[in-house]
User: Fold this.
Amino acid sequence: MFNFLKPSPDAKVQVPADKVEGVYKRKQTGVLIATCISYLAYYIIRLIFTTEQKPIMKEYGFSVGQIGLILSCFGVGYGIAKLFMGGWVDKSNTKNFLAFGLYLSCIFNAFLGFTKNFYVILFLMLFISFTQAMGAPACQREISLWFSKKHRGVVFAVWASAHNAGAFACVACIQLATLLFSGSLTMVFITASVISAIIATLMLLINSERPESEGLPNMAEYSGHVELNEKGESTAQELSDKSFADILFHDILTNKVVWAVTLTSMSIYIVRYGVMSWIPSYLPTKGFSVEWAKWLVGIFELSAVPGVIILGLVSDLLKGRRSFVCFLCVIAMILCLVTYFTSTSKALITVVLFIMGSLIYAPLSLVGLMVNEAVPNYAVGMSTGFMGFFQYVFGETMATALIGMLVDKFGWGASSTVIYIAAGVAFLLLVYLVFKERAIMKMEDQVNRTK
Assistant:
């Protein structure tokens, strides 16, 4: 039934040596465009319900509590499903897997337009969370397979910025549907699904699976640079006969770097959502208007895009020293957090939020790349899923539910305490990762010099 998801075998006919470079660059361009635009379309589907929650409450008669339950159901389902989808994509045809997940998301999203039943919507959002979890692992696996460590930082940063563009595209879809169909909620969901399905089809046409299935050498051979994990083993192998459980245990759970990166990511997620989710509620206590506080959420998100790409490029220029760049970002982030929570100047708080977007999202982008580079290529998807599980099930939950309860009981000082602790944990973990990264890079230099 799912034969189209089986990985393609290595090509029998190899691309002639004199054409390898040209074909590689053309395929890389297609992969970069396909992963970015496909992930943008994933975000259109993901954010439609969230963006339209006010009209849904008004038309369907849902309470704030019911909307919150639906959204939390999505978050938990997404975090859990990401682990399993990551393991599945490692053994799949990656480009078909990416498109298939988006097609399924479109179908379930369209169904949302034909029901007002709370429990049906709850289950549909759960199904959407499962299919949405297919996107990031597939994209990150493709980037790891098609781009060398020398260029992967900026490529990954460009891809990671697609979710910001996706948020804009989601609003554009809503406005288009509202204009064409007189504000019909049913047509809002259908319009988003149709547009995203068209994108999935077009991107499937320009995407590629693995270099070796296209008659090209793998990235280690093509770039001439061998990448190693913490044990000094090459990470170049693209496919493996190992079982899901074997990969999870031997390549993920027993990998100290994976754990350190994952917990760093979870900690920064707490900072991210602990700041962003509460901007509309916290800033009015500093004298901001409610409307201006809402605009600052958008400023916080959009201001991060150029900074994330620049810092991704910096990590490439430093020959892949992702941990070091993250370490510097976290130090600056802590200084911004202190200013954000203690200052009474509206101008200074606005400037700090503008800067802090990059200082939070750049490490979040780079740790996603770091966890992929810490494992063999046949485990990239699972490493993405493993980290995503901790990000959403623990990180986002602590930043929203826990902070909300603590603020109700102790006031906004409790919010800053949780965020300071999370930032401190990230700082300590990154100290370890900086030294670990240096040791791994030293091993790689030795291996590549003797080739």
